[in-house]
Amino acid sequence: MLSPPFIDGDEAYGTRASTVFLVHRSGRVTFAERSFDGGTATETRDFSFNLASPVAS
Fold first, then answer.
1. What is the mean pLDDT of the chain?
2. Cα distance between residue 5 and residue 37, in whole Å
3. Confidence class of residue 55 from pLDDT cuts 50, 70 and 90?
């Protein structure tokens, strides 16, 4: 059985954060996280950086 990607529950249960982590073969990394409270997005944080060496293909 699969779970839904977002669970809208009460204060004790439900999705608290969603995260996306992307790595480009050039070595560029993008990381984004969105926080939720009561099913409402409260904060989004984005980070990007370059790896010391490119990703092997």
1. 85
2. 16
3. low
How many domains does the structure of the chain reveal? 1
pTM, rounded to two decimals: 0.66
Given a contact cutoff of 8 angstroms between Cβ atoms, the answer to whether 47 and 30 are in contact is yes
Closest to 50 (Cα-Cα) out of 29, 34, 19: 29
4 to 7, 14, 15, 27, 44: CA distances (angstroms): 6, 11, 10, 31, 21
Pairing of the two strands 28-37 and 17-23: antiparallel
Sign of the C-alpha dihedral computed for residues 10, 11, 14 and 16 taken in this order = positive
Residue 27 lies in a domain: yes
